[in-house]
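Renewal narrative, Specific Aim 1. Our central claim is that a sequence can be written position by position from structural information alone. The example that follows is taken directly from our test logs and has not been curated for this report. It begins with the structure tokens describing the chain, in the order in which they were read.
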């Protein structure tokens, strides 16, 4: 495992049956944060690497953009190994996690709020996540300029460690109705995101994006 951008580490698993890669990311600071858990199989695969990457420090946060198997399916497994870790998520996602008995406590955030620590700052944005348009969150790490796009910018194929250059405005315009099936919410999301200026997009699936 090596950093894919600055100190951001990527974990990746390719599923050939659907020709899609699934990524999780780690900022291994002294308040380490993991972005998504993967499913149970993926979570089990990354635990040894997480422990090695965090060194003497421990995992403090797990960001979950929305309630779906590859975003939070491995949460209970990860919490067996990092019981002090707290999920960061929307209020809707927190209700799902607690309701399914996956966790007792979450750090809930609303769009426009931030989580600021000594080593990173996360700013959160509304994410009407498919299929049910439940209120989720997208995150921008403002100090490094890393945008965590969840399922918005999907490209198929094996893509662990892959980077492509792209234009931010084009990526935002190409968000499809299949990803946000409500036209009004899709437009609102695009109007919000087009104002951002990330340097790097950590995708949930497919190659990461170096923004030109």
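The sequence written for that structure reads:
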């Amino acid at each position: 495992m090596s950093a894919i951008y600055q100190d951001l580490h990527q974990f990746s698993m390719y599923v050939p049956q659907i020709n899609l890669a699934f990524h999780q990311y780690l900022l291994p600071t002294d308040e380490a944060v993991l972005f998504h858990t993967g499913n149970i199989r993926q979570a089990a695969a990354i635990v040894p690497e997480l422990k090695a990457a965090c060194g003497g420090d421990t995992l403090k946060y797990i960001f979950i953009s929305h309630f779906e198997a590859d975003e939070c399916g491995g949460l209970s497994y990860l919490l067996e190994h990092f019981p002090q870790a707290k999920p960061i998520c929307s209020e809707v996602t927190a209700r799902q996690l607690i309701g399914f008995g996956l966790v007792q406590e979450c750090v809930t955030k609303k769009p426009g709020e931030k989580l600021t620590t000594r080593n990173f700052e996360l700013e959160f944005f509304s994410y009407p996540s498919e299929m049910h348009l439940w209120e989720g969150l997208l995150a921008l790490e403002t100090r490094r300029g890393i945008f965590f796009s969840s399922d918005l910018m999907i490209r198929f194929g094996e893509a662990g460690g892959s980077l492509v250059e792209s234009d931010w405005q084009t990526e935002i315009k190409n968000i499809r109705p299949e990803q946000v099936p409500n036209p009004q919410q899709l437009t609102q999301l695009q109007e919000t995101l087009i104002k951002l200026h990330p340097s790097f997009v950590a995708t949930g699936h497919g190659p990461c994006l170096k923004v030109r």
